[in-house]
Amino acid sequence: MSKFWSPIVSRLTPYTPGEQPKINNLIKLNTNENPYGPSPLAIAAIQREAADTLRLYPNPDSEPLKLAIAAQNAEYGVTPAHIFVGNGSDEVLAHAFQALLQHDEPILYPDITYSFYPTYSRLYQVAYKTIPLSDDFMIEVDDYLEAGKNGGIIFPNPNAPTGCLLPLSEVERLVAAQPDSVVIVDEAYIDFGGDSAIPLVSRYPNLLVVQTLSKSRSLAGLRVGFAVGHPDLIAALERVKNSFNSYPLDRLAIAGATAAMQDQAHFDRTRLAVMNTRTGLVTGLNALGFEVLPSAANFVFARHPHHDAAILSAGLRADGVIVRHFTNERIAQFLRITVGSDSDCHALLTALPKHLL
Ligand code: PMP
């Protein structure tokens, strides 16, 4: 810290990302990456783009990508005017905090949730109030309805790091009951077993749905995310974006993401593979005595009644398997384990027993 730092930056606790280890032979089950890799059509599109056009600035509106997302959601009345794209959904969320959540009343989000929300709240000086999850780690819509006036609501669905899903009917109940609040549903993990709220967008002008290509499209390294909402919400995001960086997506990202959105077969094949592996992983963890929260994500959240999660995490690491452990008191007994390939999950289940003696 130095005297040149602004007061906001001095008070900021930055988000701590999951570890990206330098050693390659580790089994990495800590940051919810997809083991199957992106669509080959996306890689080919990136190669073509790299060969031909990097001399030129990209399309400032990422138009080909917006058209591909709109085409996929055309039956719900989604057009390019309903879509915002950014450099990962983290950037989309950052713009949403600035563009849509800076009001007098505090915004609401769960107490156990994606830890970028408190970081963005502090960075953009957005007051917030956390709403505790229920005893079984679920989001309870009634608790939000009873919390009084608010400056907006944001939550991941499925929630992170629990993986638990709020049914679409409950999402709709919340959005419908709060017409004066923007409700942002962060669907980073929705493709692994949940129903997206995108079909609701045409009926609720207060709903913004945020998705990413990092997980179900296996493009975490390309950094592409998007939001779908009423054109008035999208216009606010575009205004912030254009005041910040009018070219957030580069040519490679636009080309790769567009091709990835169009490859439905690869998308369905790989997300089903992740869901199948998840079933086996949960069975294996249960057999070892773990309690696993119901997951609709590409990770599971598991605790053992007799073993300390921090010690288990360190023991696994010594065996070359990295999982995520959070120090937040309410969830300190849990491990968050990414659903990797079958062989990754087998390695985890083989490494665990000796730490449970
Ligand atoms: N939302 C949630 C709930 C997440 O867990 C993540 C991944 N860390 C993101 C958003 C951001 O993903 P990305 O920036 O890679 O799109």
UniProtKB/TrEMBL annotation:
Q: Which SUPFAM superfamilies match?
A: PLP-dependent transferases
Question: Membrane-crossing residues?
Answer: none
What name does UniProt use for this protein?
Histidinol-phosphate aminotransferase
Summarize the subunit comment. Homodimer.
Q: Which family does it belong to?
A: Belongs to the class-II pyridoxal-phosphate-dependent aminotransferase family. Histidinol-phosphate aminotransferase subfamily.
Q: According to its UniProt record, what is one Pfam family this protein matches?
A: Aminotran_1_2
Organism expressing this protein natively: Glaciimonas immobilis
Its gene? Answer: hisC
Which molecular function GO terms apply here?
A: histidinol-phosphate transaminase activity; pyridoxal phosphate binding
EC number(s): the record gives 2.6.1.9
Q: Does the keyword Isomerase apply?
A: no
Q: Domain named Aminotransferase class I/classII large: which ranges?
A: 25-352
